[in-house]
């Protein structure tokens, strides 16, 4: 029986990076969590402990901070591309790099009806994300968002599902539909207006969720992905993960009260988890972008 080293990678995980760009009295904030992962000819360190090909994870961390100063962060996709291309171009034994970035949002605090120049409040749990993969001279960008919490108080049904002796769920033609959207979309190309594309895709996802009359969360998921591909030609495919944040109508009859879909119990677990991919028939090979 033979034993061999399989696929491997290593890097520095969850480097916290905050930058302040001072444009006179007005300051601009970037708050990121950056992770690096390098791949290549790294057999020696695994098999013999020879570290002559290992770019230390501390060096990777320092590179993130130095690049943030030398070339600014800018859009997270561009920052990830610069970092990944640096590691692959600088070290011959490194043939691939994956840079994962979460951007944490901050809003300016309003004072006297105007946004303050340098005071901010956290804008919630939603994060803008990107994963940049470099392999030799090729690049793939997968961007997205996480923890976008949405709810509609009507316009959602769920019925017609099979029933057996274990089924207790009642059918409904009017329910609350709530979820926390995680979306990742794979771009075709790496020279794009990232900010505009992100804003438009986010708008499409929200508008479709709001306006699509839903017979299931699966139907809503597909409609959201389909709308993005129809309107944004730069997107090859989109993956969506949407937990069903259940809201159950409370039985108020013991108190002599009726409940016409007005009072609910919001349950955090267990929950249904709906996931799916919507893609173009002619989408290019994703390469290592989803691995």
What would your notes on this structure say?
With 291 residues, the protein is of the alpha+beta class. Helix content is 23%, strand content 39%. The protein is built from five helices and ten strands. It has helices at residues 43-47, 57-70, 76-90, 194-211, 217-231; strands spanning 15-23, 26-40, 94-111, 114-135, 138-152, 177-187, 235-244, 247-249, 264-266, 272-279. The strands form two sheets. It has an eight-stranded antiparallel sheet. The chain has a two-stranded antiparallel sheet with strand order 8-9. A hairpin with a 2-residue loop joins strand 3 (94-111) and strand 4 (114-135). Helix 4 packs antiparallel against helix 5. The longest helix has 18 residues, at 194-211. The two termini are 28 Å apart. The model has no long low-confidence stretch (mean pLDDT 96). Pfam families: Uricase (PF01014). It comes from Amycolatopsis thermalba. This is Uricase. Catalyzes the oxidation of uric acid to 5-hydroxyisourate, which is further processed to form (S)-allantoin. Belongs to the uricase family.
Task: Tag the structure with descriptive keywords.
single chain, alpha+beta, 8-stranded antiparallel beta sheet, two-stranded antiparallel ribbon, 5 helices, globular, Uricase, Uricase_CS, EC 1.7.3.3
Secondary structure elements and pairings:
Elements: E1 15-23, E2 26-40, H1 43-47, H2 57-70, H3 76-90, E3 94-111, E4 114-135, E5 138-152, E6 177-187, H4 194-211, H5 217-231, E7 235-244, E8 247-249, E9 264-266, E10 272-279
Antiparallel strand pairs: 1-2, 2-3, 3-4, 4-5, 5-6, 6-7, 7-10, 8-9
């Amino acid at each position: 029986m033979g034993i061999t080293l399989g696929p491997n990678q290593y890097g520095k995980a969850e480097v916290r990076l905050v930058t302040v760009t001072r444009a006179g009295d007005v300051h601009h904030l970037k708050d990121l969590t950056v992770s690096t992962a390098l791949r290549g000819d790294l057999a020696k360190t695994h098999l013999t402990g020879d570290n002559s090909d290992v770019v230390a994870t501390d060096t990777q961390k320092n590179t993130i901070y130095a690049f943030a100063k030398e070339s600014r962060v800018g859009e997270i996709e561009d920052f990830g591309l610069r970092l990944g291309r640096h590691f692959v171009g600088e070290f011959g034994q490194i043939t691939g790099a994956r840079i994962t970035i979460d951007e944490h949002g901050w809003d300016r605090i309003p004072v006297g009806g105007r946004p303050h120049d340098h005071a901010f409040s956290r804008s919630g749990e939603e994060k803008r994300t990107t994963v940049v993969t470099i392999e030799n001279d090729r690049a793939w960008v997968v961007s997205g968002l996480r923890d976008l919490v949405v709810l509609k108080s009507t316009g959602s049904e769920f019925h017609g599902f099979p029933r057996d002796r274990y089924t207790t769920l009642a059918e409904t033609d009017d329910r609350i539909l709530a979820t926390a959207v995680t979306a990742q979309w794979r771009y075709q190309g790496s020279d794009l207006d990232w900010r505009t594309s992100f804003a438009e895709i986010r708008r499409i996802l929200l508008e479709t969720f709001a306006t699509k009359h839903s017979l299931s969360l699966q139907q809503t998921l597909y409609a959201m992905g389909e709308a993005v591909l129809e309107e944004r030609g730069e997107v090859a495919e989109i993956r969506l993960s949407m937990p069903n944040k259940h809201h159950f109508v409370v039985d108020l009859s013991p108190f002599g009260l009726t409940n016409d879909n007005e009072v609910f119990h919001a349950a955090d677990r267990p929950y249904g988890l709906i996931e799916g991919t919507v893609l173009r028939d002619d989408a290019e090979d994703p390469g290592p972008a989803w691995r």
